[in-house]
Write a structure and sequence with these properties.
Elements lengths: L23 H14 L7 E7 L5 E7 L2 E3 L2 E7 L3 H8 L2 E8 L4 E11 L2 H8 L4 H9 L9 H15 L9 E15 L7 E8 L2 E6 L3
Antiparallel strand pairs: 1-2, 1-5, 3-4, 4-7, 5-6, 6-7, 7-8, 8-9
Helix pairs in contact: 4-5
């Protein structure tokens, strides 16, 4: 494959220390609302990066399923690769790439499991097929073929009918943030990067070189 030289100029906006909200959660909410208004297909899609016990990083796209003053919530199989990583190294990074509006948000912090009650409540909101899929799939393990996966799905369908409990190996996580970066594309690659770091009395902001 030949080298890739295609590029675009970023001209849609700017970001200054004076205009960002003192609270990074509120700033995230403002930008998330902008992404929704812009009509992005899945503004809640985020890259989740974890690190294994051997120090090997891995990243995948997961869906944000809630954010409040505590942090950022997502749900998955506890026995998946990301679940195993978080068991031994409970720190992770999130990345929202809203390319259409020339923005990114990075969030880092410690990850903890949500309570069983919170996981139960969210699981019951999921579509029936998605609930059954959580039982059918041993996420991140090797399967012999597609038919074996579909057979397990059928077994779960026959086993549970319309009343599907949350699997014990599936539930929610909360990333408790200790760092944020808001990135706004600018011409000439002189992008605006505002970072939030914990201070003695709340958060403080600082500008990073692009």
């Amino acid at each position: 494959m030949e080298s890739i030289t295609a590029r675009r100029e970023y001209r849609l906006g700017s970001l200054t220390e004076a205009e960002v909200d003192p609270d990074p959660i509120r700033q995230f909410a403002l930008w998330f609302a902008d992404a929704e208004r812009a009509g992005l297909d899945e503004p809640y899609a985020m890259a989740l990066a974890t690190v294994s016990a051997e120090g090997r990083p891995s990243a995948r796209i997961v869906l944000l399923r809630g954010v409040d003053a505590r942090g950022f919530r997502f749900f998955t199989n506890y026995q998946s690769r990301k679940g195993r990583d978080l068991e031994v190294n409970p720190f992770a990074s999130l990345l929202f790439d809203w390319h259409e509006i020339e923005r990114q948000v990075r969030i880092e912090g410690r990850v903890e499991r949500l309570s069983p009650e919170e996981s139960d409540a969210y699981f019951q909101q999921r579509p029936t097929e998605t609930k059954l899929g959580a039982w059918a799939s041993d996420q991140s393990t090797v399967v012999s073929d597609r038919r074996s996966l579909e057979a397990r799905f059928q077994e779960a369908t026959e086993r549970f009918g319309d009343t599907i409990p949350r699997p014990p190996h599936w539930g929610g996580y909360l990333l408790v943030p200790d760092g944020f970066e808001f990135w706004q594309g600018r011409p000439g690659r002189l992008h605006d990067r505002i970072r939030y770091v914990p201070g003695s009395s709340g958060w403080r902001t600082e500008r990073l070189a692009p």
